[in-house]
Structures are given as C-alpha cells and as structure tokens.
Amino acid sequence: FYSRIDSKLLIPIKILTESAKKMVSSLESEEKIELDIKTGDELEELANAIVKMDGDLSDYIRRLKIITGR
Asked: Which residues of 58-68 are buried (b: 16+ CB within 10 A; e: fewer)?
C-alpha cells in the first residue's frame, strides 16, 4: 500500500518541488526544465503547467531584456 502511495504521489511531488526550485534559481538562464511525470491525473497536469510557465517566464524575461536593453 505505502509503496504505491510513494510511487504514485510522493515521488512526483518531490520531482515537482525540485523542478520548481531549479526554475526559480535559473530564471536568468536559457535552461528549460523538463518534467517526465506520467501519472494520468492532476499531478501530470500540474507538471505540464509548470513546464509551460517556465517557458512563458523565459520568453517574458528575454523580451524584457530586449526592451530595456539589458
């Protein structure tokens, strides 16, 4: 029972947490986060949303640098 909870819930949450930390620490870089969470539920949707948010933030920062000349 507990091993199912660990693999279905806790491991994806740990991956999401580490990816969010990585995203915040590398906002200025061109490095994109990649998440391979295939749970078929809300955790997978959250992972996809985080990847999209990372891309959107990178694009926004790139455009802001162009506008401000930085």
From this structure: beeeeeeeeee
How does pLDDT run across 15-53, given as a tens digit for each residue? 999 999 988 888 777 788 889 899 899 999 999 999 999
Q: At what angle do helices 42-68 and 11-25 cross, to 10 degrees?
A: 0
State the alpha helices, DSSP H only, in 7-41: 11-25
Q: Which residues in 1-70 belong to E strands, given as ranges?
A: none
Spell out the residues 6+ positions from residue 20 whose beta carbon is closer than 8 angstroms to its own: 50
Does residue 37 contact residue 16 with C-beta atoms inside 8 Å? Answer: yes
